[in-house]
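To: structure desk
From: M.T.
Subject: fold request, one chain
Message: Could you run this one when you get a chance? Sequence is below, nothing fancy, just the single chain.
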Amino acid sequence: MIDLYYWGTPNGLKLKLFMEESGLPHRIIPVDIGAGEQFAADYLRISPNNKIPALVDHDPVGGGAPVALFESGAMLLYLAEKCGRFLPADVRGRAEVLQWLFWQVGGLGPMAGQNGHFVVHAPEKVPYAIGRYVKETNRLYGVLDKRLADREFIAGDYSIADMASYPWIVPHEPHGQDLDEFPNLRRWFETIRARPATMRAYQGVKPAYAARNNIPEDERRVLFGQTAASVR
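Reply: Done. Structure tokens follow.
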């Protein structure tokens, strides 16, 4: 059994997608990040970076003590290796998937996240920041669109690279992006959206940024006002 500590953010949804695709036995443990549950002492022992998602695998390969993990990319890699799916076994195929997985965790996610923050959440509009991150998100969409020009999925068969990237494309409208400008990306996006596992993963999930531009001040302090004192 795997405990998945989850909230309905793009990074949380990556792992929910994997669980639905793989069928690995798991239970979802909600972590309400607006209420500050990610700073609870018990949770910090699992996820010292006080972010979601995180997991505890109570039945790791080879047995022994449970394995606890944080960081969504590391979790996807661990789970793909555990079940022997969504990551090629050959060295070249594996390298293709991993470089695009790291492209997402190092580029698409952080840039789109900052885009969403300054466009939707920031208490004051900062034109330079909005322009910077909306344009960079647009550039990254262009990279992915070009990659998908001659292939169905990002790195061959459907893989953890696709699962990592898809949830960050879902909020394309609030991120100021028009998928009609990226026909290969749109085709890929619609293909993944139609997968039964994707439908299950997103069932009941609120649209990104829905009613989030008027966050209560106490919740805003939890989400955006933390310092090192929060994790000591």
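Reply (cont.): The chain has two domains: 2-86+205-231, 91-195. Let me know if you need anything else for the meeting.
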